[in-house]
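Supplementary Text 2. Reproducibility record for the structural model of the 169-residue chain.

All settings were left at their defaults, and a single model was retained for analysis rather than an ensemble. We include the record here because the model underlies the residue-level annotations in Supplementary Table 4.
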Amino acid sequence: MKDKKPMTETFEQLLEHNKEKIYRICKIYAVSPLEPQDLFQEVIFAIWKSLSTFKGNSSIDTWIYRITLNVCLRSKQKSGKTYDKTLQLESIQFIPVEIPIENDQQEKYNALASCISKLNNENKSIIILYLEELKYKEIAEITGSTENHIAVKMKRIKKILLDCITDKL
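Retained model, structure tokens:
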């Protein structure tokens, strides 16, 4: 039996509980400075639209991660095409929490973000979920892979990122 959380949370509570992690993932997939907000709104709309179909076969958090990744990946596929769709959910107020980072840490963060952006979509999804502190089992469930496959991929991804960051710093 999978980890189930009873669906007693309202949409607003669900959003409040998950908005930071959704925004972090959107920010990683974004190209332009305004794109994270657009992606965030698309993810929230997708969650709202699909909430009634949530069956509880996985935890609600796993389900939200899956929707977030799918929306971000779909957006990347569309980015090459001219796609003019504006969706505004006026009722959602989201102000990202900005934690001040020292210059040295900022340089390391920028190097890591740059290296992650060069990964293919599968590897990028895996490392993003890993950085969200998910276990390999949860990452496997979200991505549709096996836990063993995730472990092997993570070893390779870490090597790629280490080589990339070493060159940058």
